[in-house]
Structures are given as C-alpha cells and as structure tokens.
Amino acid sequence: MSLFISQAHAQAGQPAAGGGELFQIAFLVGLFVLFYFIAIRPQRKRQKEHAEMVGALSKGDEVVTSSGILGRIKTLDDNYMVLTVADNVDLKFQRIHVHAVLPKGTLKSIGS
C-alpha cells in the first residue's frame, strides 16, 4: 500500500558479538576518569590552596578581596576580618572572600 517507501525485510545473520556492552561501560568509565583529571582534581587543589591562604592570614597583611577591594588587615577572628581601606575607613569582610595576599608595601606603591 505504501507508494514511496519500500518494504524492509529482516535478514537472518550471525548473532551480534557481546563486546558492545563492555565497550560502553569502558567508555563511560574512561569519560569519568578524564572528567576527574580535567575538572574535579584541579578544583579541589585550588580549594585546598585557598583554605591554606585564608588560614595563614595575619594582622597587617595587605590583601585583595574577591570584590576587588584592597586593604590592610586590622583585626581578625575565626570567620571575619576588618580591613582598613583608607584613612578612618574600615570594612568588615568574611575571611573566605580574600582573593590574594599582596606583597608588603603594595598599597603604598598603588595609593595616592
């Protein structure tokens, strides 16, 4: 009855080899291993380095926050720090928002 589609007939052939399922499993495991080394492992390394940097902060360090504010640490406690960003201007931040610790004297060389 079909005018444009010819009928397909199934061919009786040899049974398919059983390696297809094993290949798919090996492929998925390989993708996971590749994803681990490309994405997960470097991210964990960066998190560990950041946690060590935040733990090593001390009074007087010059830092840059994740929002780009530069300042000198005035006081520290377990979770927060107070930065002096200008004369008589102190801001309170969470310690985890420190992006980088600057070399001593950087604020004087940048500032006016």
What does this structure look like?
By secondary structure, the protein is α+β, with helices and mostly antiparallel strands. The chain folds into 2 domains: 37 residues; 53 residues, SH3 type barrels (Roll). 38% of the residues lie in helices and 26% in strands. The chain has 2 helices and 5 strands; from the N terminus they run H-E-E-E-E-E-H. A 5-stranded antiparallel beta sheet has the order 4-3-2-1-5. The longest helix has 37 residues. It starts with 18 loop residues before the first helix and ends with a helix. Belongs to the YajC family. Pfam families: YajC. Keywords: Cell membrane, Membrane, Protein transport, Translocation, Transmembrane, Transmembrane helix, Transport.
Brief rundown of the structure:
With 112 residues, the protein is of the alpha+beta class. The protein folds into 2 domains: 20-56; 58-110, SH3 type barrels (Roll), CATH 2.30.30.
| CATH-scheme architecture of the largest domain | Roll
Structural class: alpha+beta
User: If strands are numbered along the chain, what order do they take across the biggest sheet?
Assistant: 4-3-2-1-5
Number of helices: 2
Oligomer: single chain
Largest sheet data: 5 strands, antiparallel
Q: What is the average of the pLDDT values?
A: 87
Give the total of domains: 2
Terminal CA distance reads 88 Å
Low-confidence stretches: none
Output the helix-strand order.
HEEEEEH
CATH C-level class of the largest domain is: Mainly Beta
Strand content: 25-35%
What is the fold named in CATH at topology level of the largest domain?
SH3 type barrels
Got a strand count?
A: 5
Q: What's the overall geometry?
A: elongated
* Helix percentage range: 25-40%
